[in-house]
Amino acid sequence: MGRILAAAAAFALLSTSSVLAQTADNHANDVLLEYGQCGVGAFCLGGCDPINSFSLNSCVPAPVCKSADYKFDNLDSIQPNTEYLGDVSEAKWVSSGQPEQFEDNVLLTLSETGKSSSGTLLASTSYVWYGKVSARMKSSRGKGVITAFILMSDVKDEIDFEFVGTDLQTAQSNYYFQGIPDYDNGDNLTVKSSTFDNYHTYELDWTPTQLTWSVDNTVLRTLKRSETWNTTTNQYHYPQTPARVQLSLWPAGSPRNGEGTIAWAGGLVDWNAPDAARFGYYYSMISDISVDCYPTPDGANKTGDNAYVYNAKSGTNESVAITDDNTILKSLLGSGTNMDADYPKEEESETAESPAPTSEIATVPGLTGAGPGTNGHRGNDGSDNTVAETDGSGTSSSPGSSSSGVGGFSQGTTDTQRSEASLPKEKGLQSSIFAALVAVLGLLVL
Predict the structure, then answer these.
(1) Identified catalytic residue from 162, 259, 350, 426
(2) Is position 259 annotated as part of the catalytic site?
(3) Span 166-181, pLDDT tens digits
């Protein structure tokens, strides 16, 4: 009888431990959802959503606008999102997917497998809070393939040029306020010659009162802020918060997307089409980008010159402040509330009785597992899985070269990125479960 009671007690302990572990997992998921885009690392850098994160200061402060002309005769100004920590002096652009060098262009690639299977994204490390931004570029071509040149703010204000690969005479213009879909905001702009075969200069001229879309120095669309008043919310649904410059190539024609998105993109991506068959990927070409920053808006809350931060959850222009806050993380374990978080030092792990644990927290969107461990490798797999940079030699006779790996980005919302992050399990609960199993097995043997 005593053995039966002991076994019952051990089983109860096992059941309780399992319930507690499940409760911890559910709580971890709740915390993750609360944090929105920001947990740690790259999730808290460019593109971090302050409104849906745990607090407004969870996101790392955003570097202020810097006027510059960017050439792409090499890839030195581009840093993969597995390495970028917020230092704009080290990188002018951050990438996911697989950018490649070809002559005096950076290629954005889209492959069926490998690093660019979700496409390639190039995003500025500095933000623009009103200004004139232009890109000299060629779009991609083909069913299901979308090229984009946009301004995207952290609260999802957005200004777009988009190019559907089956319509090479059109640039689609669009804008959003805080990501709210409004199907009346889009307008098709006619381009005089092929967007794939010829370079064109696409320009967004954005002021607090007016926005224009231009192609080859000709204004094709004008939007006035006064035209965007929304009587339901009593707000101007006009893009009005600091934004990153983003250029991307992505597979809207993926079978994972909805029927409407696939139809808009001209159908499913054809991996036997000439470009994909010849080079192993689709591509678009970016020759150069120009950013001309406009003066700080009248009435802005300005106490410094280094960073943009949000001080209210309204996500409007009045909630933005310019400060001298730091924009650089110590490591990919950091966040806006703990900028100095770092990995254990290598000498500490060498003297410890057991190896220093690698982080189990996802630190980079699009990658599973942890950020770099103490030996420079990504946690748990024992191999170097950081995104390799190309040599920038430009000696390839065809546009770039394909390679395998893991990567990707989300166009627009980032719910899938949030779901990929994981939090450490409670070690105490795991030990309790193990002890209970041992107890049950021991009693059964008796």
Answers:
(1) 162
(2) no
(3) 999 999 999 999 999 9
